[in-house]
């Protein structure tokens, strides 16, 4: 009797599994096709280039100052104490450049998050709506590699693109 109950429970579970609807989407491909994402990436790249240019200018200036200090030292224009003081100032400037570099990286990440997070939210909301409207129990992301097999008929990319107005 116990054996029949277990078989009945397994059969009910399997029939429930067959009634569930699954879908997949390639979010990486979708994201790259959205004009707002391209614009955001362009803005991020411009911001990154501006910060890199400023950093490079700071480095050039420091290199020029080091070269000038070496010339003065070689010509004997500075005492050892003056050379030490100037070298300490340049060391502080070098540290400021390192701090600028670290802060720049953080600013780039923040800018990226500020520009792309609303778009990710918009995409997720579209996926959620497509899932609800079409009775999908699960939608897998093909771009993450977690889908081992997907029937093309379960690709919801077209539905999500329509929901995004693309």
Structure, described:
The structure is a single chain. With 166 residues, the chain is mainly alpha-helical. The protein has a single domain, classed as Protein Binding, DinI Protein, Chain A (2-Layer Sandwich). Helices cover 77% and strands 5% of the residues. The protein has helices at 2-19, 27-33, 35-75, 80-133, 157-163; strands at 22-25, 138-141. It has a two-stranded parallel ribbon. The chain is rod-shaped, with a radius of gyration of 30 Å. The chain starts with a helix and ends with a helix. Mean pLDDT is 87; it is low at 1-12.
Helix content: over 70%
Structural class: mainly alpha
Helix and strand succession?
HEHHHEH
DSSP summary, beta strand count = 2
- What's the CATH superfamily, by name? Skp domain
Low-confidence stretches: 1-12
Number of domains: 1
Q: Tell me the overall shape.
A: rod-shaped
Percent range for β-strand residues: under 5%
CA radius of gyration: 30 Å
CATH fold call: Protein Binding, DinI Protein, Chain A
**Whole-number mean pLDDT:** 87
Distance between the termini: 57 Å
């Amino acid at each position: 009797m116990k054996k029949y109950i277990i078989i009945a429970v397994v059969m009910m579970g399997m029939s429930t599994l067959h009634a569930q609807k699954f879908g997949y989407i390639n979010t990486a491909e979708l994201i790259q096709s959205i004009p707002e994402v391209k614009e955001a990436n362009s803005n991020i790249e411009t911001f990154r280039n501006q910060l890199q240019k400023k950093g490079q200018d700071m480095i050039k200036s420091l290199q020029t100052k080091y070269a000038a200090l070496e010339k003065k030292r070689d010509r004997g224009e500075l005492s050892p104490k003056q050379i030490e003081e100037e070298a300490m100032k340049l060391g502080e400037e070098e540290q400021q450049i390192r701090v600028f570099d670290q802060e720049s990286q953080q600013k780039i990440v923040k800018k990226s998050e500020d520009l792309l997070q609303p778009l990710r939210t918009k995409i997720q909301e579209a996926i959620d709506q497509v899932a609800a409207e079409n009775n999908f129990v699960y939608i897998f992301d093909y771009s993450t590699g977690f889908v081992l097999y997907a029937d093309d008929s379960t690709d919801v990319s077209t539905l999500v693109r329509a929901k995004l107005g693309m």
